[in-house]
Design a protein that fits this description.
disordered N terminus, elongated, binds zinc ion, 4 strands, mainly alpha
């Protein structure tokens, strides 16, 4: 999905980002947090390199050096981006920016929803502007330096702005739900927010193909340009028992922005569709394209989206609870600290809202307190986070959740790698009988995609563990070359013999 690090900072967003990114990496989008992509492109493919299928990932020494340098920069940027986000949240919290912003939105409107819309939009805008230098370097400058992007600055910038708008819309909804639940249930919000995250994420997956994807790319029915390939894809989808009507197979104009090679299946239920990037059609022959499509079909047929969603949600349940504990502690410490430095006559604003007719004396005190507060100069009023339910706690919430999601990344990626490997196996099985030599075509497709993408030929075990949502290319190629149960008279695991 085309969202920035801020999205992944909110754990819920991270979940949907993680899910969709592992289905169809979109490295051309600005501030893309997913370092490891399945496939990308470059222009200098040498047809002489691999006329026959090698059983591992092969690069010329020059290209290999380039791939290693590019990958290492990406890894560094990933960790730098996390550190930068944490620094920004810490700054917006400790500098009093969030509290000042909350005071301002309270003056503008008494309505909580209006306050939320204003607060979140401005808060996100400031965060994204502070992140911009890194976004620019990672999403634009670096891609051009390595000749992976074909996108002009104006177009990239337009995407950046659209991404910001999208982040704000999703952010407002999620933040509104979050604070509503925190106010309703200060002790159980972690559980209710977890429940709420399920329909929100599902809605996002269903709506994404209609609303998000057309914002960034143009789609045309594949049968208009590639009727023969569409026939073959249709035959293979039938073979996979995947019901995607011919009219929902699309070509995407990825080449306007990138050299990356890819295909994906997105949406759910009626919004389900298959998309082949035009870069793929330019670089891969139809056998090789079918193997890529077979992999994507595998995600659907093997129900990877609901399975991965369920497993990730289990992890997020734990994260939300741990987050709840840490957020409460930090905010309790915060309010205790600031309360000490205040004149003792000022009663916390919660007391002002007490409508319960307690004793006349207390009510009288409350009235005095609220009067004395209105007399205090603007920024000296309520200059603290009033509790978890206060919008001003947002940088603290994001800080804690970003750390937790970061620590959970190896687990989330491990789950993803497992399903990606299954999809690779499915792709080979479903192509058997449709493609003359599935192994060779699969090896070739990985080789071309990885070579063009400058994929790391030899990632360290730590990097693989922490960042890889897909198995490293060399591993995938070795498997693609060696998995042939049909040659050994063994049954297929996922696609029962139909022919
Ligand atoms: Zn996949």
């Amino acid at each position: 999905m085309k969202s920035g690090l801020l999205l992944s900072a909110l754990a819920l967003f991270a979940l949907s980002a993680h899910l969709t990114a592992s289905q169809h990496p979109q490295p051309a989008a600005p501030s893309q947090p997913v370092v490891v992509t399945q496939s990308k492109g470059a222009a200098d493919r040498q047809p002489a390199v691999a006329p026959r299928a090698e059983s591992h990932y092969v690069l010329t020494p020059e290209r290999r050096a380039k791939a290693v340098a590019y990958s290492r920069t990406q890894y560094l940027l990933y960790f730098a981006a996390i550190a930068l986000s944490l620094a920004i949240y810490a700054f917006l919290w400790r500098s009093g920016f969030a509290v000042g912003l909350r005071e301002w939105v309270r003056q503008v409107s008494a309505g909580r929803f209006v306050q939320c819309v204003l607060f979140v939009s401005l808060f996100l805008a400031v965060v994204r502007v502070l992140e911009f230098p890194l976004d620019y370097y990672w999403g634009f400058a670096l891609e051009h330096r390595y000749d992976l992007s074909t996108q002009g600055f104006g177009s990239w910038m337009a995407d950046w702005v659209k991404d910001l708008g999208l982040t704000a819309v999703v952010g407002i909804i999620v933040v509104w739900v979050f604070y509503w639940l925190v106010r309703r249930s200060p002790r159980r919000w972690w559980l209710y927010f977890w429940f709420a995250s399920i329909p929100i994420t599902l809605a996002f997956i269903i709506v994404e193909p209609y609303v998000v994807e057309p914002l960034f790319y143009r789609f045309t029915p594949l049968e208009k340009t590639q009727p023969a390939l569409t026939d073959r894809i249709e035959k293979m989808l039938e073979h996979a028992h995947l019901a995607i009507p011919r009219s929902r197979i699309y070509e995407m104009d990825a080449s306007a922005k990138t050299r990356i090679v890819n295909a994906y299946v997105s949406g759910w239920g009626a919004s389900k569709r298959l998309v082949v990037w035009d870069t793929t059609l330019n670089k891969l022959n139809s056998d090789e394209t079918l193997l890529v499509v077979g992999h994507e079909a595998g995600h659907y047929v093997l129900h990877h989206i609901p399975k991965e969603f369920a497993l990730d949600e289990m992890i997020f349940l734990v994260l939300f609870y741990v987050g709840f504990v840490f957020i409460n502690r930090i905010i309790a410490h915060e309010t205790a600290r600031t309360r000490h430095s205040e004149p003792p006559t000022v009663i916390p604003s919660e007391a002002r809202n007490l409508t319960v007719p307690v004793q006349g004396k207390l009510r009288e005190e409350s009235r005095i307190a609220s009067r004395s507060q209105t007399e205090i100069p603007r920024f000296a009023r309520n200059d603290r986070v009033e509790g978890v339910g206060d919008l001003a706690s947002l940088p603290i919430v994001l800080l804690v959740l970003t750390v937790l999601v970061f620590l959970a990344t190896p687990a989330l990626d491990g789950i993803s790698r497992h399903f990606e490997h299954q999809a690779d196996q499915f792709g080979l099985e479903v192509a058997y009988g449709v493609v003359a030599d599935p192994n060779t075509a699969d090896v070739r497709s990985f080789q071309i995609m990885a070579e063009e993408d400058l994929e790391d030929p030899d990632p360290s075990p730590f990097i693989r563990f922490w960042l890889y949502t897909h198995p490293p290319t060399d591993e995938r190629i070795r498997f693609a070359a060696s998995y042939k149960p049909w040659a050994e008279g063994k049954p297929l695991e996922f696609v029962p013999a139909i022919r």
